[in-house]
C-alpha cells in the first residue's frame, strides 16, 4: 500500500512545520514548499528526528512572485504524482502597503493569489484517481476585520489599512474554499472531495512581526497564545479525520464548523472573486464556469 501524497505550503515554520511533522508521523509522503533553503534543512532535520525514513521533497520559490508559483507547480508536475492532500498554509501580515514584482499588494499576492494560482495549476492532480482528495486552507478569524469583500479594490490603491487588507485576504480564502469545493465536484462527480478552511486561533508563529507594535501585542497576549502544534490541530483534523470525509465548503475552529455571516458565504461574490483572480493570475477564462 503506497503512502498518501501531501503538498504543503508554508512548511518551514509555525503551523506548517507542525503540520508537516504530524503528517510525516502519519506516513504521508511530503512535498513541501519553501523559500529559504536553510529553514527547509532545519525543518527536514526536525522531521527526521521523529521519522527517520520520512519521504520529503522540497519545491523552492517565492510565493509573492507568480513566476515562482508556476515553477513550483511545474516542479511537482514533473513527479507525475496525484495529490491526496493539498494543504495551503502559507501566509503573512505586513504593516505597510508593499507591491510585489507583479504589481500586487503583498498580502493579496501571498495569502490569496498564490494559493489560487497554485490550485489551478495542480487542479488535474486533485481530480485524478478514485480515492478521496482533501484540500485544507489556513484562513483566519481576521476576516471579521471587513464586512464585505473589497472586490473593487483588491490591490488597496486607496485607504490601505493593515488589518483590513489582511482580513480581506482571509475572507478571500473562505470564498475561494467554497468555490473550489463546487468546481472540484463538478470536474469529478464520482470522486469524494473534502475541501475546507479553518481558523487556527491566535498562534505565536511570527506572522505578525511586520505589523507595527506586533511584538508588543504578542507579548501582551502571550497568556492566550497557542502553540504552533495547537494551531495546526484543526487543519490536521480536516486533513485526516474520517468524521469530515465528503464535507466541503466549511470554515472550522477548534475542530467544529462555524456559522458564517452572509457576506462570508455569498455565492455571487465568490464567483466574482474567482473570475477576478483568474484575470490577476493571467489564467484562461476557460477555467471559469458561469453555472457556478
List keywords for this structure.
alpha/beta, globular, 8 strands, Rossmann fold, 292 residues
Characterise this structure.
The protein has 292 residues and is of the alpha/beta class. The protein has a single domain, classed as Rossmann fold (3-Layer(aba) Sandwich). Helix content is 41%, strand content 13%. It is built from 9 helices and 8 strands. Strands 3-2-1-4-5-6-7-8 form an 8-stranded mixed sheet, sandwiched between helices. Helix 2 links the parallel strand 2 (29-34) and strand 3 (56-60). Helix 1 packs parallel to helix 2.
* CATH topological fold name: Rossmann fold
The overall pLDDT, averaged over residues, is 93
- Counting copies of identical and different chains, the oligomeric state is single chain
Task: Please describe the biggest sheet, giving its number of strands, its sense, and whether it closes into a barrel.
Answer: 8 strands, mixed
Q: What is the domain total for the residues? A: 1
Strand line-up in the sheet with most strands: 3-2-1-4-5-6-7-8
- Which runs of at least 5 residues are low in confidence (pLDDT < 50)? 216-221
Task: Provide the CATH architecture.
Answer: 3-Layer(aba) Sandwich
Share of β-strand residues: 5-15%
- Head-to-tail CA distance between termini: 37 Å
Number of helices: 9
Full CATH superfamily name: NAD(P)-binding Rossmann-like Domain
Radius of gyration: 18 Å
CATH class call: Alpha Beta
Structural class: alpha/beta
* Helical content (DSSP H or I, runs of 4+): 40-55%
What letter string, H or E per element, gives the SSE order? EHEHEHEHHEHEHHEEH
Q: What overall geometry do the principal axes of the alpha carbons give?
A: globular
Q: Care to count the β-strands?
A: 8
Amino acid at each position: 500500500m503506497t503512502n498518501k501524497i501531501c503538498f504543503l505550503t508554508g512548511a518551514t515554520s509555525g503551523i506548517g512545520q507542525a503540520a508537516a511533522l504530524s503528517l510525516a508521523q502519519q506516513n504521508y509522503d511530503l512535498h513541501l514548499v519553501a523559500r529559504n533553503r536553510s529553514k527547509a534543512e532545519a525543518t527536514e532535520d526536525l522531521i527526521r528526528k521523529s521519522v527517520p525514513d520520512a519521504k520529503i521533497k522540497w519545491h523552492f520559490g517565492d510565493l509573492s512572485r507568480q513566476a515562482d508559483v508556476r515553477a513550483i507547480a511545474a516542479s511537482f508536475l514533473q513527479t507525475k504524482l496525484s495529490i491526496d492532500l493539498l494543504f495551503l498554509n502559507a501566509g503573512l501580515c505586513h504593516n505597510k502597503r508593499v507591491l510585489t514584482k507583479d504589481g500586487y499588494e503583498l498580502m493579496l499576492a501571498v495569502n490569496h493569489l498564490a494559493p489560487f494560482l497554485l490550485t489551478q495549476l495542480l487542479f488535474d492532480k486533485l481530480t485524478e484517481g478514485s480515492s478521496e482528495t482533501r484540500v485544507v486552507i489556513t484562513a483566519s478569524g481576521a476576516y471579521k476585520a471587513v464586512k464585505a469583500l473589497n472586490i473593487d479594490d483588491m490591490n488597496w490603491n486607496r485607504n490601505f489599512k493593515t488589518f483590513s487588507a489582511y482580513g480581506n485576504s482571509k475572507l478571500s480564502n473562505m470564498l475561494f474554499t467554497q468555490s473550489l469545493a463546487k468546481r472540484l465536484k463538478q470536474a469529478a462527480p464520482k470522486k469524494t472531495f473534502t475541501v475546507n478552511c479553518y481558523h487556527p486561533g491566535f498562534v505565536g508563529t511570527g506572522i505578525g512581526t511586520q505589523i507595527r507594535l506586533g511584538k508588543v501585542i504578542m507579548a501582551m497576549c502571550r497568556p492566550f497564545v497557542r502553540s504552533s502544534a495547537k494551531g495546526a490541530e484543526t487543519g490536521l483534523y480536516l486533513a485526516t479525520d474520517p468524521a469530515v470525509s465528503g464535507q466541503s465548503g466549511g470554515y472550522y475552529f477548534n475542530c467544529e464548523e462555524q456559522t458564517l455571516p452572509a457576506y462570508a458565504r455569498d455565492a455571487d461574490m465568490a464567483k466574482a472573486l474567482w473570475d477576478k483572480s483568474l484575470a490577476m493570475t493571467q489564467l484562461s477564462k476557460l477555467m471559469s464556469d458561469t453555472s457556478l
